[in-house]
Amino acid sequence: MANDKIYGRSFSVTRADRERLNGHPSGVIWLTGLSGAGKSTLADGLERKLHRLGKRTYVLDGDNVRHGLSKDLDFTDAGRDENIRRVAEVAKLMMDGGLIVITAFISPFRKEREMARTLIGPENFFEVYLSTPLAVCEHRDPKGLYKLARAGRIQRMTGITSAYEIPEHPAFIADSSSETVDHTSERLLASLGWICRGSGAGIDD
Amino acid sequence: MANDKIYGRSFSVTRADRERLNGHPSGVIWLTGLSGAGKSTLADGLERKLHRLGKRTYVLDGDNVRHGLSKDLDFTDAGRDENIRRVAEVAKLMMDGGLIVITAFISPFRKEREMARTLIGPENFFEVYLSTPLAVCEHRDPKGLYKLARAGRIQRMTGITSAYEIPEHPAFIADSSSETVDHTSERLLASLGWICRGSGAGIDD
Questions:
Q1: Longest Cα pair distance anywhere in chain B, in angstroms?
Q2: Looking at the complex, does the CB of residue A63 fall below 8 Å from at least one CB of chain B?
Q3: Which terminus of chain A has fewer Cβ atoms in its 10 Å neighbourhood, N or C?
Q4: What's the first-to-final CA gap in chain A, in angstroms?
Q5: Cβ of B7 under 8 Å from any chain A Cβ?
Q6: Which residue is closest to B47 within chain A, CA to CA?
């Protein structure tokens, strides 16, 4: 969490200053997994726990990005790539702003997750893989997308007609079909040691 | 600062929760004016004062947006419009995240500033007009752009070959050729009464 000169700007208030004011480091927790795997539910559960601990948080997901910043984009490969690029850029800005950002996007391709990791900085990027089996996700089908995909009415549905590339070295794995969101959130929180680091200690300008 | 259901999401932690945790409301301070008018300098001066008062802040400007989120955009009218749209969307997300966002972009056209105001919500949008005269801005020429424009090497330079539409009802006006940044920042801070409102009072879920 040391590099404040993310953009080479000359502004006086730095990320480290904001982290000190907040009393905790900032960073990005990147959730990835199939539609219906439980990303938004976990994002919400984790944010609630972090907020109760006095941490400054924000969740970026399809609801607040696709209807706003990315509303000009379609769901082709190019559109999805650009959406993930923008999410990574916004997460980076918010992290610079002192927030712990939780992103909840399928982000099925390794190369886009690696792009995000590189952009945000590996030391700030915590990859969480929701490994919930496809059969469970498809049964849940919270947005009705699997049904549409099976009926041939959606192109490039991840898990059905488009690949999901499993993370090779995620920092954390959870399967929402075999664990409650409360338990997963607790485990995840415990694994996020850097978040619980107090203000000041180890943070340099 | 009342409407938390900006996106109709089902997330538990709301903007009002974040404002309570921070002890101050969030919002957007939108600086507009010619290149060289003093926008970035004022953004920096104001952010320093806000930070010293314990407010959570962030500055969006060309340096951290044009090199990242908007690096795919050019400087045609369409590219500039889209840049301002993205800035407004990101400012809105950051405001939802509890931050006082200061934006420093020329944003020369009324319609783009009105787009931003509508998107962000008039009650959250504080328009600041840097009225520094063109002659002073051109003399300063901090990026060398006026010289290039006069030499015909830059198309559509605001103030030279492209219009700057003066805000009709800005919330605050300052001329950096006749006032120090410290004095302007103090005046601006004093005019931002809502920022100094304590936590809790008047904030509803």
A1: 56
A2: yes
A3: C
A4: 10
A5: yes
A6: A13
Predicted local confidence at residue A46, as pLDDT: 97
d(CA A47, CA A79): 28
C-alpha dist (Å) from residue B132 to B29, B34, B163: 18, 8, 15
Q: What is the DSSP string of B64-131?
A: HIIIIITTT--SSHHHHHHHHHHHHHHHHHHHHTT-EEEEE-----HHHHHHHHHHH-GGGEEEEEE-
Name the residue with tokens 């006082």: B100
Which residues on neighbouring strands pair with residue B130, listed in sequence order?
B33, B174
For residue A8, pLDDT over 80 is answered with no
Q: Average pLDDT by consecutive 10-residue portion of chain B (205 residues)? A: 44 95 97 97 96 96 91 90 97 98 96 97 96 97 93 91 95 96 95 65 33
Mutate one of B10, B55, B64 to test the A interface: name it (highest A CB count within 10 A): B64
**Contacts of B52 by beta carbon, 8 Å cutoff, 6+ apart:** none
* Marked catalytic residue, from A26, A107, A176, A185: A107
Name the pairing type of β-strands A27-33 and A100-104.
parallel
Helix (H, G, I), strand (E, B) or coil at B30: strand
Any CB–CB contact under 8 A between A99 and chain B? yes
Give the gyration radius of chain A's Cα atoms.
Answer: 17
pLDDT surpassing 60 at residue A199 = no
Q: What is the pTM of this model?
A: 0.91
Helix or strand (DSSP H, E) at B43: helix B39-52
3-state secondary structure of A175: coil
pLDDT band at A18 (very low <50, low <70, confident <90, very high): very high
Exposed/middle/buried for residue A25 (C-beta within 10 Å: 0-12, 13-18, 19+): buried
∠ Cα A113 A117 A121 (to 5°): 175
Nearest to B97 by CA among A52, A60, A17: A60
Orientation angle between helical segments A39-52 and B15-22, nearest 10 degrees: 20
Nearest in space to B38 (alpha carbons), one of B102, B110, B132: B132
Looking at the domain covering A15-196, what would its CATH class be? alpha beta
User: Which residues of B are known to be catalytic?
Assistant: 107
